[in-house]
From TrEMBL:
Keywords: Cell membrane, Electron transport, Heme, Iron, Membrane, Metal-binding, Repeat, Respiratory chain, Signal, Translocase, Transmembrane, Transmembrane helix, Transport. This is Cytochrome bc1 complex cytochrome c subunit. It comes from Streptomyces graminofaciens. It holds the Pfam family Cytochrome_CBB3. InterPro entries: bc1_cytC-su, Cyt_c-like_dom, Cyt_c-like_dom_sf, Cytochrome_c_Oxidase_Subunit. It is a multi-pass membrane protein. Its EC number is 7.1.1.8. The keyword Signal applies. The chain crosses the membrane at residues 242-261. The keyword Glycoprotein does not apply. Residues 1-30 form the signal peptide. It is found in: Cell membrane. It catalyses: a quinol + 2 Fe(III)-[cytochrome c](out) = a quinone + 2 Fe(II)-[cytochrome c](out) + 2 H(+)(out). The cytochrome bc1 complex is composed of a cytochrome b (QcrB), the Rieske iron-sulfur protein (QcrA) and a diheme cytochrome c (QcrC) subunit. The lineage of its organism: Bacteria, Bacillati, Actinomycetota, Actinomycetes, Kitasatosporales.
Amino acid sequence: MKKLSARRRHPLAALVVLLLALACTGGLYAAFAPADKAQADETAQSLTIDEGKKLYSVGCASCHGTGGQGTTDGPSLVGVGAAAVDFQVGTGRMPAQQPGAQVPKKKVIYSQAEIDQLAAYIASLGAGPEVPTENEYNPEGADIAEGGELFRNNCAQCHNFAGKGGALTNGKYAPDLTGVSEKHIYEAMLTGPQNMPSFPDQTMTEQNKKDIIAYLKAVNGDETVSPGGLDLGALGPVSEGLFSWVFGLGVLIAVAVWVAARTAKAKKS
């Protein structure tokens, strides 16, 4: 009887074994599963970079060098970051059609997937600004009034107070911002393309950029109507007033000449 009672298992033994088994299973999963996922992500990123390198070799290396180091025909791309590539290629400015004082916006020739591959390759050459997420550039709920003040203080000197663009020196110009996507406006502020200064988050916060985007969408949206009628490209009251004076004076002079001619003819008759 004593031997039988000694061999009898404790009532909680099965539960303890089950808990140990679950703990071992969880430990093994935690040890191996994340590593597999990380390895898969690394492999996918490597493939993306390889595809981007192939695209770069065909469409970009002739100007920017085989390793992105730059040439006399194009600047170095080391450290410009993925955001610069997404902006330049995503707006059709790159690849450049021909050399000039400034590279204009044109039809995009790459798909978004190819742009992402190019951006991944350029980002691998040196750290730089990353492509912003929708949460970063979505202006919903942003302060339009604050954005207007920021835009007038930092951007209107070149882009005009309504973002209609303007001429610069030596054949350069600030482009019209009408119809430009929120993402590309954010990337332009982040990277400073061509003649534009860059505004990193240390200089202009993410919220500041959102406010500016909200302002531009407010003044150039599809439902925006000029309260004064024809806005002449929103060039401002001086130019619009000058046009009115020149046109009005021209009409008055023409009427005066016509009246004088009629009066002289009447006297002769």
